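Side project, low priority. Logging it here so it doesn't get lost.
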Amino acid sequence: MRTPLVIRDLRAAPGTLTRGFLPVGETVAGPVQIPVALCNGAEDGPILCLTAGVHATEYPPIDAVMRVIQSLDPAGMRGAVIAVPVVNLRMFESRSPFVSPLDGLNLNKIAPGSAEGSLSQVLAQVLLTELIGRAAVHIDLHGGDLGEMLLPFAGYALSGRAEQDALGETLARLYSPGLVSLAGSEGLVPPFPDGIAHAASQRGVVSIFAEAGGNGTLEEADVQIHLTGILNVMRHLGMIPGSPVPPAGPRILARERVLVRATRAGLLRLKVRIGDAIAAGQEVAEVCNLFGEVVERVRAPGAGLAGLVWAHKVVHSGDPILRYWVVEPS
């Protein structure tokens, strides 16, 4: 942009990139901070915010944002990028899944946060108001957390504003390799109302929720899904040269998610993989007792697409084993 991009003490002049930290609080061990890179293009254009590490054991999105920071050329870019490679540094350093070790809260379930709350609530509030809120478009990058293996997808929370929603759906379709989740007021599919992306959408930011990778892994294919999606978004917005490369596979629209649980305890033998089509009544797993006898054959209540499986192989009664998407062609 032809004017400096300034967030607190961080300042990026036109055509430059700067990096630093935003303090949000402190513990007895030291400050709690958000690492931020500001890449300010030489020409005017939209501001894009990238956030990863809301759940900081989801490594492919973190790596993707790190690579984007390293590859951006501000002199040849329009607009600006606000990039946060790891939102939750305390989770990152302690390798903690799902919830913060500081206050036990899930950062993606407490939006919009509170300036008067605990550290996670303050972090959510700063993220939304001082970083995401500065942007026209936001991508909230995720993957499956520890113990979760999932089917990549991209989603957008419908705001009721036609122009914003049209762009949000377009960007989600350009990001996802196949599955697209458009969340309405029913709360049947993500992004959900207590999440960062949903809160940003309701505040007028076109906020995409994107997932690829899982279970504590860092696979190149998962990183590339995120990188391809980010570059497609930037090209569509005119921030970098070139045209978006639409994903090659068919578009599938999510309508609902269904959770399948075990009712007995024992060793779990899963019989479906991520991305498999599931028929109503199909056996998706069996549970064996300590002597190898099958005590339960778990069947899907309806048809869908296997979207998430849990990595644990020992289950108790009531444990989740599979979540499938109810989908339709799009």
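Brief comment: The longest strand covers residues 16-27.
Revisit when time allows.
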